[in-house]
Amino acid sequence: MILNLHGLNGGANNTNYKLLLKLYSEDNLLSPQIDYMKTSPIEILNNLKAYKNIDYVVGNSFGGFYAYILSNICKIPCLLVNPCIPPQKYIPFLVEEYAFTDELVSFMSEYSDHFQPVYMILGMEDNVLSPAYTEQIIKSAKVWKIHGGHSLSGNQLFYQIFHAAVKEIESIM
């Protein structure tokens, strides 16, 4: 089972989910709709931990933060696409009056030593999150740096690399 986590204002049927559907049947995918603004990170992670038999987790942007943390908690690999890490650097500037910054900081400090395989795709022209900063924070098994911004939807090279990343994750399972 593969768990897909969308970004801050994204949806469960995001680009990553559509790419995963080309590789797996819908029965093998979970892609919940998450209200990051109204739900505490503790509650989000408790809800995500309730999913069983997850082989790996894919996360985009703010969903990438949750995928990173969940990967360590559940001891499974993760594939991150332009992850929002560390979230406390970005979320307060992207969201007015975000109520849960302290919880984000707590999770980041608790799980900063990440021991599970991390695969990451970074759009090097991302003007929302700093790919160079993210790359310094996260120790990855492999990083793909591609031309593109924060949204990589419609980027054919991203689609090819995403499929390659999934194949690499499958090869270690």
List the helices and strands and how they pair.
Blueprint: E1 2-5, H1 15-21, E2 29-30, H2 41-49, E3 56-60, H3 62-74, E4 78-81, H4 87-94, H5 101-110, E5 118-123, H6 131-137, E6 142-146, H7 156-172
Parallel strand pairs: 1-2, 1-3, 3-4, 4-5, 5-6
Which H/E pattern describes the elements?
A: EHEHEHEHHEHEH
Distance, first to last CA? 12 Å
Amount of beta strand: 15-25%
Strand order of the largest sheet: 2-1-3-4-5-6
Structural class: alpha/beta
Oligomer: single chain
Radius of gyration: 15 Å
Overall spatial form: globular
Number of H/I helices:
7
Major sheet size, sense and barrel closure: 6 strands, parallel
Report the average pLDDT across residues: 93
Count the E strands. 6
Residue stretches low in confidence (pLDDT < 50, at least 5 long) are none
Helix content, binned percent: 40-55%
Concise description?
It is built from 7 helices and 6 strands, in the order E-H-E-H-E-H-E-H-H-E-H-E-H.
What labels describe this entry?
six-stranded parallel sheet; single chain; about 40% helix; about 170 residues; alpha/beta; about 15% strand
